[in-house]
Design a protein that fits this description.
globular; 25% helix; Nuclear Transport Factor 2, Chain: A; 5 helices
Length: 137
């Protein structure tokens, strides 16, 4: 189900600058609960957290996160089922707008499926935090 929602590879900075970021980002709107809970977990490295609701909250969270990025290419590497949760492991290749600094990191997200729809998603900068959140050692 998550594969129907989240693209396997995409430059999210480019998507968020498009005229229709929801259409470019969310492949299957019917798979998402209207009251979707969206969280970007704060990190030990100092990244601020974010909470929002619905598809609009998902877009708002990503737009906020992507402010300093010229390019932010996400590639989904693996999905791990954990009960009602699905952990999505990803690889990011990014380039900042200001100085063109390039970096790569491996974050994760935990998607929660309730009654056949995605009811929550939490994005983590550290895979270990996502796995712990989903109850996976």
């Amino acid at each position: 189900m998550i594969r129907r929602i989240f693209p396997a590879e995409s430059d999210l900075a480019e998507v968020m600058r498009s005229d229709d970021p929801i259409g470019a980002f969310v492949a299957d709107r019917d798979a998402i609960a209207a009251d979707l809970e969206v969280s970007f977990a704060a990190s030990q490295a100092g990244a601020a957290g974010f909470s929002g609701r619905g598809i609009e909250g998902l877009i708002e969270g990503w737009r906020d996160w992507l402010i300093p990025w010229e390019s932010y290419v996400i590639t989904v590497e693996e999905f791990i089922e954990a009960g009602e949760n699905v952990v999505m492991l990803a690889r990011i290749r990014g380039r900042t707008s200001r100085d063109g600094v390039e970096l790569e990191h491996k974050p994760a997200a935990v998607w929660t499926v309730t009654e056949g729809k995605v009811s929550a998603v939490t994005f983590f900068l550290q895979r270990e935090e996502a796995l712990a959140f989903a109850g996976i050692e």
